[in-house]
Design goal:
Layout: H1 2-24, H2 32-38, H3 41-55, H4 69-84, H5 87-104
Helix pairs in contact: 4-5
Length: 108
């Protein structure tokens, strides 16, 4: 029950925060330093979600070995991204390496 109340509470807070900004529209003026800082929020949040999933996929601690398909796929995706700068190719390469590694290496 506490999980449900927590999720409902987070949804209500998120809704009212976004509604407040939307209703006020152009009347809300953020300082320049805040606008510059908010540019980094999506990258920071995405990194905070992805890095623990890659380094500790089972939540039991860090798995820094070649038996970790998430880690191998992430390394492959980073290399493809650095080499090509193409997002769709990066995603496809990461998925292909992940599933190939999981099916090939893990089932030997």
């Amino acid at each position: 029950m506490t999980y449900t109340l927590t999720i409902i509470g987070m949804a209500v807070i998120t809704f009212f925060t976004k509604a407040f900004i939307f209703i006020l529209g152009d009347r809300v003026v953020f300082p320049i330093w805040l606008k510059e800082a908010l540019v980094f929020v999506p990258v920071t949040v995405l990194t905070a979600i992805i890095v623990p999933m890659v380094l500790a996929p089972h939540g039991d601690g860090m798995e820094l070995s070649w038996h970790n398909p998430q880690l191998i796929a992430a390394i492959a995706a980073v290399l493809v991204c650095v080499g090509t700068r193409r997002q769709l190719l990066t995603i496809a390469a990461g998925l292909v390496v992940f599933f190939a590694w999981q099916l090939g290496v893990m089932h030997q």
